[in-house]
Structure formats: C-alpha cells, structure tokens
Design goal:
Blueprint: E1 13-18, E2 27-34, E3 44-51, H1 59-70, E4 89-92, E5 95-98, E6 111-114, E7 121-123, E8 126-127, H2 130-138, H3 159-163, H4 182-187, H5 193-204, H6 212-219, H7 233-237, H8 244-260
Parallel strand pairs: 1-3, 2-6
Antiparallel strand pairs: 2-3, 4-5, 4-6, 7-8
Helix pairs in contact: 5-8
C-alpha cells in the first residue's frame, strides 16, 4: 500500500486556546486555522470560546468578534455581509460557504473554520485567488459583438432571452464550487473549474453576444471543459443555490449540436 507523508512544515500543530470570559453561560467553541508565512512556524489550530450572548448570529460575526476582542492578528476577507460580494468564502465544518450567510445555530458542537481548500494560503483564512481570477479573465466575461450598436437604444433582449441568464449572472465568484471540485484540485492549471465554466455559459446564452462560435472554439478542449466528471460537489456547496454542473452539461450540449449541424 502506498504511503504519503506531508512536508514537516505543513503538518498542523495545536495552537492557543482562549477561554470565554468568566460568568459566560452561553458558550460556543470555534477552532480556526492560523498560519503566518513570516513566522516560519507550522500552521496551527487556535480554539476560541465565545459568549454567544454578546455575539451576532452569523459565523462571520463570530470571526469579527475574535478579531475585535481577542486576537487582532486574525486575517480574513469580508465586505458586504449580505452574501453578495463572495469575499468571506471559507470552509466551515468541512463545507465551503460564505461565513456571512451561515448561522451559528445551524451547526452543533464545535465550529471548525479553515481557508478554501486546494489554494495557496496567503495568511490564516485568506486564500490566493490570483489564478482563479486569471481563468475568469480568459473567458472574456463581457459582451462581444460584430454589428454596430443601435444608434438610439441599448442592445435589447426579449423577456424570454433575459430569463435564460437567471441562475448564471447570480454567481458572486466566491470560488466555493471550484475549490470543492476534485477535478479542479488535480487539474487546476488547465481545467477552468465550475465557477468559470458557469460564467462562460452565461455569455454563450446571452442573446446580445455575437461571438458564440469563438467562445465555443476556446472551450472545445480536453482539459478546459471536459475534466468535469459530474461529481456535483459544485452544485452541492454553492452558497447561492446555483447549478454549475448543469451549465457545464449545457455547454457540452452546445458543442455536440454544433458538430451535428
């Protein structure tokens, strides 16, 4: 049987424990991944016991309480707090999600918080999304046209054509789906992953776009598109309830239809 070992500097070590204030009765325990590349130390798991009577209801509220009141060095991304920007994507109890949309009460016992998997960690809960955004740019996520714009109006859509974009434009590029995909873990240099392929399909079905042929040419590749094996982790974990697996399947269908004429 093959045996695999992690590099010594990647093995998690036990971190610090911060007890709740004396007299607190409504206590929840949070275990948070910590790593500072400048310290030269291994990643560790710090434990924080929080008084829920003085904490907001969401996981992000707990993380903010830790940073504001216990350990100001804790590093993470956050912005809108409404599930719109995708900034606070992280792994909560083994599943990728947005910390601002997950209620603490929806979990039992200890809540374990890690950065998104597969990606390089910048610090603590901040993952490096440089490659992810470069892949997004590669699909040209904007309308491309061949004909001149109307002189006195916008490029219009029928109500039916507009409805085709529902469940596609809603993506907030949080990377929860792509970083939950085993195919993306092993082939991320060439496989675009669920989030980017969902965005690619969004432009393929936009009636205002006139560059469908070139877009399909770019996707007709054994790795960019066809590394998807319909594992469905992407759809299961999407915090916005979208279906990247369906978008990928529809893109494959468009390529088959083009071949058949």
């Amino acid at each position: 049987m093959a045996e695999f070992t992690l590099p010594k500097n990647s093995v998690l070590i036990e971190g610090k424990t911060f007890k709740a204030s004396e007299g607190a009765t409504n206590i929840r325990r949070f275990e948070v991944y910590r790593w500072d590349p400048e310290s030269g130390e291994n990643p560790r798991i710090d434990a924080f016991e929080l008084d829920m009577d003085s904490c907001g209801p969401m996981v992000l509220d707990a993380i903010l309480k830790i940073k504001n009141e216990i350990d100001s060095s804790l590093t993470f991304r956050r912005s809108c707090r409404e599930g719109v920007c995708g900034s606070c994507a992280m792994t909560i109890n083994g599943k990728n999600s947005l910390a601002c949309t997950k209620a603490i009460d929806s979990y039992t016992g200890t809540i374990k918080i890690y950065p998104l998997p597969h990606l390089q960690v910048v610090k603590d809960l901040v993952a490096d999304l440089t490659h992810f955004y470069a892949q997004y740019a590669s699909i040209k996520p904007w309308i491309e046209t061949q004909t001149p714009a109307p002189a006195d109006s916008e490029r219009l859509q029928s109500k039916e054509d507009r409805e085709k974009l529902d469940g596609l434009y809603d993506c907030v590029l949080c990377a929860c789906c792509s970083t939950s995909c085993p195919s993306y873990w092993w082939n991320s240099e060439r496989y675009l992953g669920p989030a980017i392929l969902l965005q690619a399909y969004r432009w393929l079905v936009d009636s205002r776009d006139e560059n469908t042929g070139e877009r399909l040419d770019e996707l007709e590749d054994p790795f960019k598109l066809y590394r998807c094996h319909t594992i469905m982790n992407c759809t299961d974990t999407c915090p916005k309830g979208l279906n990247p697996a369906k978008a990928i399947a529809e893109t494959k269908k468009l390529l088959v239809q083009r071949k058949l004429g």
